[in-house]
Amino acid sequence: MTELRRIDFHSHILPEMDDGAYHTGESLQMLKMLKDDGVSAVVATPHLYLHRESVGRFLQRREKCAFMLRKAIEESGLNLPEVIIGAEVYYGSGLGNLPLGELCIEGTDYLLLELPYAVFSTNFINSFKNYLSFCDVNVVLAHIERYYDYNMPERVEEILSLGLLSQANCDSVVSVRSRRRTLELIRSGKIGLLGTDLHSLDERPPRFAEAEKIIRKKLSDSAFEQMMATAAEILNR
Nearest CA to 76 among 20, 14, 25, 10? Predict the structure, then answer.
């Protein structure tokens, strides 16, 4: 029987890149925590805000930070989760004019996209639909469950009806406040990927093992395993 690969699809473990890990030592500690949670691969998805930074500058910084982390992992001699480089791109004006291939998760044509933390107006939804009509990559919506805090449920459901892959944060599974809705979205197939959205050792720790336990208990073993299978299929790993 093939061993289940646990894949964290969303994290901020690259050092000195964004509001995640501040240095390689913290990155290594984060990876150790993920390893303890059973994670075998983690997608590093640093924030890109196009109104703050150009794609070129972002890619230069990301290459440098990824090199730093991989060198630190090699020098540590530790058996840590595989690190796969990607980005968490904030949706906004100008995105449709950019070549997005280099921002996709490495080795794939999948882009993790963060939507605005605001009301999804009719104009916004129409604009987003128009963007998707000519987008040349596969969009994955980051932590889709969060947007219910800003919108009437039917607005988020309209986004979900577009048929895009969506990712949930482990915190949303663990938190009693958001658990029921997040689990229902997983159960119905509207959320197919799981990520820690790991930023730090204390303020936003992994909680991957906790989320797995809850999904298996409240839904089923197959519900969790299907999420991991979806991630593995995307990454071809």
Answer: 25
